[in-house]
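**Paired protein data**
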Amino acid sequence: MELSKPQDLFSLASGDTVSKRNLFDLIQYSKVDSSPYWSGPDFTIGNTPQQGINWVGNLPSVKAVIIKTRPGSYEEDGWSDDDKSAFHYSFKARNGTVNFKEKANDVLIKQPQHLYPILLFTESKEGWHYEGDFSVSEIENNFVVLTRKVSSTKNAIHNQDEAVYQEGGRRYVTHLMAERSQAVVSAAKSATSWVCEICSMNFYDKYGVKYIEAHHKTPISTFSAKYTIKPQDLALLCPNCHKAVHIHMKNSGLEYDEITKILAPTG
């Protein structure tokens, strides 16, 4: 497939192949306003084309992350299962040290918060093989786990979980999509209805689908030691209220209880 503009990246289907020259030129010249690849400042592709990771736009308005990986580049890199549903991708490191604030690492760490797609390419004889749209599901000291996005509408429950990683003595926290969290499973099994705790909408009654989203009421950063998430730590919310909570968290830094007072229906 030939990419003419950065927006064409979003039209790729799993299994498509892009020539190395085409992707190189798209990344290189998306920054040049006189180039045919130019689509405006919001679609410039950051980092050089020689690097394994690039990003479209700038935080907090990143449109996508592009990852190009070659077999054997890093020890941790590669598929973690035969179904190719999860891929280990190493953080960028200098002399063996990972700086989580470096842009190439920062866009990975913040993906679960902003939910932009990660477009994964693997090297092939024909060029760059597009594997599909992925999300960060786990963050380790030296790598992230990328999980293929799967759509499902049957009895769905989603969790904005949190993970803690360290750089020296400082603790960092990021939200993670973690549908396999045991706390979320317990919360789902104990739910007698699919009612949002903020707006009281019953998703099943309104749409005929058993669906709810789980939100961490207390950030893990408040805990001084390893903490096991319990169902009572989670708020079950409809998608609209869940998104609104995260927008308020991002823009104002308010705690969950304060945000619910703002969002709760009046009258």
Observations:
- The radius of gyration is 20 Å.
- Helices lie at 20-29, 103-109, 111-114, 182-190, 203-207, 239-252, 256-263.
